Amino acid sequence: MIQKLLRHRFLFEELVKRDFKKKYKRTVLGMAWSILSPLLQLAVMTLVFSQFFGRNTPHYMIYIFCGNLVFSYFRDATNGGMGTIIGNAGIFTKVNVPKYLFLLSRNIQALINFGLILVVFFLFVALDGLPFTWKYFCLLYPICGLILFNIGTGMILSAFFVFFRDIQYLYDVFTMLLMYMSAIFYTIDSYPQTTQDLFLLNPVYLFISYFRQIVIDGVIPPGWFHLLIAVWTVAILSLGCWMYKKYNTRFLYYV
Amino acid sequence: MSILEVHDVSIRYMTGDFKEIGIKEYVMRKLTRNYHVVEFWADRHISFNLEKGEMLGIVGTNGAGKSTLLKVISGIMEPTKGWVKREGNIAALLELGSGFDGDLTVRENTYLRGAMLGYTRKFMDETYEQIINFAELKEFEDRPFKQLSSGMKSRLAFSIASLVRPDILILDEVLSVGDGAFRMKSEAKMREIITGGATTILVSHSIEQVREMCSKVLWLHKGNQVDFGDDVQGICDKYQAMLDGKLKLDANGKIRA
User: Fold this and answer.
1) Dihedral, CA atoms, B229, B234, B235, B241, nearest 10 degrees?
2) Is the ipTM of this complex over 0.90?
3) Which domain holds residue A212?
4) Are residues B56 and B170 in the same domain?
5) Angstrom distances, CA of residue B51 to CA of A20, A62, B26, B46, B164
């Protein structure tokens, strides 16, 4: 796979450039908007919910920001990734190129966006007076996990999308439900223990929670927490790769 | 040593209701047993081989399986049965006009297309000026691609593609594009590539073109291989006779006595 990627390096670079230019469409706000939009969302959420949930939650804004940061990256990467096979039908029906190039290129764009917001996030963390410690290096673990998890999810979605075009709407509903179940603006402490454990079945919650534990609580999550993230990531990524492999030659008939 | 060997290749193609239906629709049709997928053999038992520098013409009426066969040869599709052996790199120039991105500029699209065709960035940097001048689009290079006329688009597509120097070249009806002056220019360029020593496969509806240029002919009819060989004039005569209705083929592509 790496060898193939090297062989198609020029094409991959051009695809990344294309996705990047298309996203920002040469507008004035362009990149600034992709930072402003999550910040506005954060401002509204903090304003609305701090009276309900924020009273007993220390660093409530950072608490929400952790949730938004992870969730918006997940949504951006997977939503964008969904259309990558269909959207590039004009290319792969004419030249023989590996189809995951399109997905990876779209994911790089989402990753750049995530990186920008991450910088703003750290700025807010500093302004909030939270201490930076060596433990922050542990954040690389959930970040890498999230990148792979998003790629895997994107593979599954983009393959499904070729066969069923209404997946798009179903997925919109799904992400909305997932957002409410990821404890982005509320805490789960007041639920009974069994309900709290159920949250651990939500991979997006795991990533969010990891960020919070490092940044707000200043503790490194236990080993089983790492394992849980690894299991989810590997499972989703393998499923995605398997689907690409299985349906690789069939996509052609559906476009 | 053959540069391209196609051995007993059969390709099953699917078509039917499955395109662009949603999952709800799919379930409903499955339940009401109203879901139809038609599978048919687009190509059956095709075998031929080409030596270096040869030029193969593929003839056949619409639906003969020419385009599907080209997709298998170029590696875009996998054959259902049989195998294809290729020596060296392959470039397929299929339906040149599509596959561009309307939002990108002409320059950006040129690089993207070059990358698709397997050129290197260095090569593109060196030849970009040449491409744009050949396409006569110098003053448009920073405009969005969608602002070009369709003639300009195919001119650009041709200019990029004409730089390929593959071992095997596949041409699907792209020998000439554009208006009078450009048509002559592009035909000359095409001949230059073909005579440059590449093994070429040409799909053409112009039987004259095939007679004139090709050293071998493959005749397909409804997925069957009617004839293959280096008797170009003989096979073309028979094909012409079939087109004129003087010759009938049976369901297996055999010539009826």
Assistant:
1) -170
2) no
3) 2-254
4) yes
5) 44, 68, 48, 17, 19
Which residue carries 């939500």 as its tokens? A202
Counting the structural domains of chain A, the total is 1
List the domain range (segments joined by +) for residue B186: 1-89+166-257
Q: Which residues pair with B14 in a beta bridge?
A: B39
- Count contacts between A and B (CB, < 8 Å): 81
Considering the domain boundaries, does residue B19 fall inside one?
yes
Q: Which residue reads 């294309």 in tokens?
A: A18
Could you tell me which residues come within 8 angstroms of residue A1 by beta carbon, excluding any fewer than 6 positions away?
A98
For residues B155 and B197, membership in a common domain is answered with: no
Q: Judge if B157 and B172 occupy the same domain.
A: no
Nearest to A10 among B98, B108, B120 (CB): B120
Instruction: Give A-chain residues touching B98 at CB under 8 angstroms.
Output: 90, 94
- Residue B226 domain-assigned (yes or no): yes
Tell whether B20 is within 8 A of chain A (Cβ): yes
Compare all CA atoms of chain B with the CA of A249 and give the residue at the minimum distance. B77
Nearest-CA residue of chain B relative to A164? B22
Structure tokens at B43: 């190509």
| DSSP for A185-249, written as a single string | SS-STTS-HHHHHHHTT-HHHHHHHHHHIIIII--PPPHHHHHHHHHHHHHHHHHHHHHHHHHTT
Task: Say yes or no: B27 and B113 in one domain.
Answer: no
Q: Measure CA B255 to chain center.
A: 26
Among A13, A18, A165, whose Cβ lies nearest the Cβ of B104?
A18
φ, ψ of residue B72 to 5 degrees: the values are -70, -40
Q: Which amino acid is at A226?
A: H
pTM assigned to the model: 0.88
Please provide the size of chain B in residues: 257
Highest-scoring range by mean pLDDT, A137-151, A182-196, B150-164: A137-151
Write the burial class of residue A205 (CB in 10 Å: 0-12 exposed, 13-18 middle, 19+ buried): buried
**What are B136-191's pLDDT values in tens digits?**
889 998 998 888 888 888 888 888 888 877 788 888 765 556 677 888 888 788 77
Rounded to the nearest angstrom, the minimum Cα separation between A101 and chain B is: 12
**Quick check: A45 pLDDT over 70?**
yes
Supply the pLDDT for residue A177. 96
Cβ B18–A91 below 8 Å, yes or no?
A: no
Q: State whether B231 and B121 are in the same domain.
A: no
Give the span between the Cα atoms of B57 and B213, in whole angstroms. Answer: 8
Listed residue (A81, A133, A89) closest to A108, CA to CA: A81
pLDDT for the residue B250: 78
- The answer, yes or no, to whether residue B27 has pLDDT greater than 90, is no
Backbone φ and ψ of A66, nearest 5° = -55, -45
